[in-house]
Amino acid sequence: MPYATIEDMPSIGFGLWKIPEADTADAVFEAIKVGYRHFDSACDYGNEVAVGRGIQRALDAGLCERSDLWITSKLWNTYHHPDHVPAALERTLTDLGLDYIDLYLIHFPIALAYVPFEKRYPPEWIHDPDEAQPVMVKAKVPLFETWRAMEQVKAAGKVTHIGVCNYNSGLLHDLMNYASETPALLQIESHPYLTQTRLVAMAKAYGLAVTAFSPLGSLSYVELEMAEPEESLLENEIMIAVAEQHQVSPAQIALAWALQRGTSVVVKSSNPARMRQNLASTEIRLSESEMSAISALNQDRRYNDPGHFCEQAFNTLHPIYD
After folding, report:
1. CATH no. for residue 257?
2. In terms of residue numbers, what domain contains 296?
3. Is residue 71 within 8 Å of 41, Cβ to Cβ?
4. Residues 213, 40: contact at Cβ < 8 Å?
5. Which residues contact 41 (CB under 8 A, 6 or more apart)?
6. Angle at which helices 143-155 and 85-96 pack, to 10 degrees?
7. Residues 313-317: contacts with CB under 8 Å, at least 24 apart
């Protein structure tokens, strides 16, 4: 049986963004082997077929049952029209080799023009990469129409829970005014340099669980030239001091801080020892003063910001955060 409630979701998930397709099946298998049961996937990551192979390998090896796993995936921007949501979900299910997923999220509150599967999959951000000046092409699809389609795929039984990613407070207020099926979860970038305290509190007040992606801060973004090496949260003197006090790594302290403030996290590592360390973060208990000192590091520093990367990489201005 699938997980019954969003509260049953394992608090530490294995993030699948930026794992090369050739390495993904092994990474998923190793993660299950060391104890991960929550996996955070997406059409746009381009590796769901390999994710499925890793899952099947673990099932065949008897490491777990399908019902032990929490699998999240996400609806991509080009499939926001209600006619395309069911097909997008079916493609994800086929790629993963599953007959249901535990959580399906709207990846971004950004509707882009449809790109057929046979033309390009995953379609990514640019509508026509062969153009001399390739750009994003927006689609006139209101978010409430996309949410209605999300409600319908949940009612059809292929998805246990539905939710949203990268929504700001205004969009979340609006969603709660028209949703017949309340979203189960909000997934957002959050770490000690971007605490998003009010948004997290507001989501919880509405009854939503909150998952933090990029909980280690800039680590995933330096190689994408979206962050500078000197921005490393893990080299911050306060993070190091707290880590030394608990005899753990700064990364574990960042995860423990996120968990203790009531969010779940998705985090990636290809190193089995680090995988185990990340899972062990659930055992760390920070003092109130340590929590406050880490929270005080907030700089409102957002790394995953379409307002920056869409203009720089895709020749299209499309901010979603003020």
Report:
1. 3.20.20.100
2. 6-314
3. yes
4. yes
5. 16, 47, 48, 51, 71, 72, 73, 74, 92, 96
6. 50
7. 313/125, 314/125, 314/126, 314/134, 314/135, 314/136, 315/133, 315/134, 315/135, 315/136, 316/135, 316/136
Mean pLDDT in residue range 97-116: 98
Report how far residue 163's alpha carbon sits from residue 181's, in angstroms, rounded to the nearest whole number. 10
| 320 within a domain of the structure (yes/no) | no
Residue 96 located in a structural domain: yes
d(C-alpha 127, C-alpha 134), whole Å? 7
Q: Which amino acid is at 6?
A: I
Asked if residue 321 belongs to a domain, the reply is no
Domain tally, the chain: 1
Q: What tens digit of pLDDT does each residue of 54-85 get? A: 999 999 999 999 999 999 999 999 999 999 99
Do the domain assignments include residue 322? no
Q: Model's pTM, two decimal places?
A: 0.97
Residue 1 pLDDT > 70: no
pLDDT tens digits, residue range 209-266?
999 999 999 999 999 999 999 999 999 999 999 999 999 999 999 999 999 999 999 9
Provide the CB-side half-sphere exposure for 197 (13 A, CA). 12
Q: Which two tokens stand for residue 245?
A: 């006090």
User: And the tokens for 231?
Assistant: 């921005």
Active-site residue, selected from the candidate residues 45, 167, 221, 303: 45
Q: Determine whether 45 is an active site residue.
A: yes
H-helix or E-strand containing 246?
helix 237-246
Cα separation, 262 vs 186, in Å, equals 13
